[in-house]
């Protein structure tokens, strides 16, 4: 039998990244016209992004209250991660657990060697072993696809655009020089920020689909992940989230994002559970048809 | 990591590609001579056990492929006398367990079983082949990773601990004779469900 590649998903992902890169190139071009001191800003932001990439795993774990756990504490979890890594051809990542009732899981780390997979105690209680493996495989697929790195780079200039929108007037210099120019640059930055925001979120959703596919093929059981998603999705609505709002920035790395009041369809970091389950069902059919 | 792997990762296809990449059974046969060195130089006797570990796929085709493996091993038993049995461990992984005092027959049977799965298109589901050895009742295993196409030693002691010095010795002496996994991050342990038994028991 042959595994089918989802070329449509690839193409859409490629186009999104191409548009984002094109947008950023134009943005850089425009900025160099208006700001001389901008180079400094970009370099500083570059360093900031670099640092973020290096410490993101620790920060993410800390903000979730997750701690690394040993093999003696969670032998089953460790063994599941170990076997799935073996199948995915990945060095075994660090395993962490967050003591939290909300069922969730996430992966962090800039590279395969610095990766951590974290699960909440809630998800271990909610899911069966098979479903949990489906979720873990999804997270391993994120590591394999280097999603933290890709999304950090993709968001870099968007962050700069946001900073210019917010603080751009400080760079204006004397009003005799390019006072009007700064206003234009801020307006452009605003447009870049809005458009890049939409593109980044679109990219994020495509990468979730890709990780679902990867995860399903690692376990060989698309149904396990589908059941897990449905179960978690049902639970997420029932469990109160008061203290979870602080962790909005973590949403992008969760298996299912926490719903916070208003998230437009466009701003979603994850596709809807129905759509994900639908695609997993398609993979299940593919495995049977061959 | 090569450029192509990087590109695959950026396009989000690396996980899928690596999870479905075919098995690499080419270097498995190293064991059919290496066991002599294990006996002669290191004093490790073959236990007469070998096992093939694979993860199932939720599909009827896969069940058929596993049935084919069983048929082939049954047919082979007449010729080589290798006993085959199928077991599932506590974590839902499938094993083909083979028993034969002749290590060369074990290697051949493992290869047959693996090849049958590869031929049916399920090579990517093969995780590892294990060959058991022992010295004064301390077991060690040579694990062949089908994902990496290389061997590594595994010496479990007690519960979830590895005898690193024994593994180091095996690695040093058998280097060159077996294709060894150079990156120790890929030396995945295969713990038994209960300490003191084989990983497949």
How does this model look, in words?
The complex is a heterodimer of chains A (290) and B (201). With 290 residues, chain A is mainly alpha-helical. Chain A has one domain. Chain A is built from nine helices and four strands. Chain A has a four-stranded mixed sheet with strand order 1-2-4-3, sandwiched between helices. In chain A, strand 3 and strand 4 form a beta hairpin. In chain A, helix 2 packs across helix 6, helix 7 crosses helix 8 and helix 7 packs across helix 9. Chain A is globular and about 60 Å long. With 201 residues, chain B is of the alpha+beta class. Chain B has a single domain, classed as Ribosomal protein S10 (Alpha-Beta Plaits), CATH 3.30.70. Helix content of chain B is 36%, strand content 24%. Chain B is built from six helices and eight strands; from the N terminus they run H-H-H-E-H-E-E-H-E-E-E-E-E-H. In chain B, the strands form two sheets. Chain B has a six-stranded antiparallel sheet. A two-stranded antiparallel ribbon of chain B has the order 7-8. In chain B, a hairpin with a 5-residue loop joins strand 2 and strand 3. In chain B, helix 4 runs antiparallel to helix 5. The longest helix of chain B has 21 residues. Chain B is globular, with a radius of gyration of 17 Å. Chains A and B meet through helix 1, helix 3, helix 5, helix 7 and helix 9 of A and helix 2 and helix 4 of B.
Quick recap:
The complex is a heterodimer of chains A (290) and B (201). Chain A is mainly alpha-helical. Chain A has helices at residues 7-34, 38-63, 75-88, 121-126, 129-144, 147-167, 179-219, 222-238, 273-289, and strands at residues 66-68, 94-98, 105-108, 116-120.
């Amino acid at each position: 039998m042959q595994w089918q590649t989802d070329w449509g998903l690839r193409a859409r992902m490629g186009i999104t990244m191409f548009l984002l890169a094109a947008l950023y190139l134009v943005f850089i071009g425009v900025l160099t016209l208006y700001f001389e001191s901008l180079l400094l800003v970009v370099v500083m932001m570059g360093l900031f992004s670099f640092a973020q990439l290096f410490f993101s795993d620790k920060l993410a774990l800390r903000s979730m209250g997750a701690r690394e756990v040993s093999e003696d504490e969670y032998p089953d979890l460790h063994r599941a991660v170990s076997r799935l890594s073996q199948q995915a051809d990945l060095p075994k990542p660090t395993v962490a657990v967050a003591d939290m009732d909300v069922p969730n899981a996430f992966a962090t780390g800039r590279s395969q060697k610095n990766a951590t997979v974290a699960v909440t105690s809630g998800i271990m209680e909610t899911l069966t072993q098979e479903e949990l493996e489906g979720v873990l495989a999804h997270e391993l697929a994120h590591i394999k696809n280097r999603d933290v790195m890709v999304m950090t780079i993709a968001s870099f200039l968007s962050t700069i655009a946001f900073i210019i929108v917010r603080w751009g007037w400080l760079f204006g210099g004397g009003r005799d020089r390019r006072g009007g120019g700064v206003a234009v640059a801020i307006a452009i930055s605003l447009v870049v920020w809005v458009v890049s925001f939409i593109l980044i979120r679109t990219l994020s959703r495509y990468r979730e689909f890709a990780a679902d596919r990867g995860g399903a093929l690692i376990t060989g059981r698309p149904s396990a992940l589908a059941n897990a998603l449905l179960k978690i999705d049902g639970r997420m609505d029932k469990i109160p989230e008061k203290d979870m709002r602080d962790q909005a920035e973590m949403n992008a790395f969760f298996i299912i994002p926490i719903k916070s009041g208003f998230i437009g369809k466009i701003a979603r970091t994850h596709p809807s559970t129905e759509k994900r389950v639908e695609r997993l069902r398609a993979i299940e059919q593919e495995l049977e048809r061959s | 990591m090569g450029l192509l792997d990087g590109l695959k990762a950026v396009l989000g296809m690396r996980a899928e590609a690596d999870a479905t990449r075919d098995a690499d059974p080419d270097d498995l046969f190293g064991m059919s001579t290496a066991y002599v060195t294990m006996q002669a130089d290191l004093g490790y006797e073959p236990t007469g056990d070998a096992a093939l570990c694979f993860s199932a796929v939720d599909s009827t085709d896969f069940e058929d492929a596993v049935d084919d493996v069983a048929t082939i091993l049954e047919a082979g038993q007449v010729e080589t006398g290798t006993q085959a049995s199928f077991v599932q461990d506590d974590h839902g992984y499938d094993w083909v367990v083979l028993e034969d005092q002749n290590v060369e027959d074990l290697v051949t049977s493992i290869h047959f079983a693996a090849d049958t799965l590869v031929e049916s298109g399920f090579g990517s589901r093969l995780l590892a082949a294990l060959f058991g050895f022992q010295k004064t009742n301390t077991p060690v295993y040579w694990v062949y990773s089908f994902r990496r196409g290389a061997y590594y030693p595994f010496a479990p002691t007690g519960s979830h601990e590895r005898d690193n010095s024994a593994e180091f010795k095996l690695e040093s002496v058998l280097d060159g004779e077996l294709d060894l996994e150079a990156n120790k991050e890929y030396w995945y342990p295969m713990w038994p469900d209960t300490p003191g038994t084989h990983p497949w028991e």
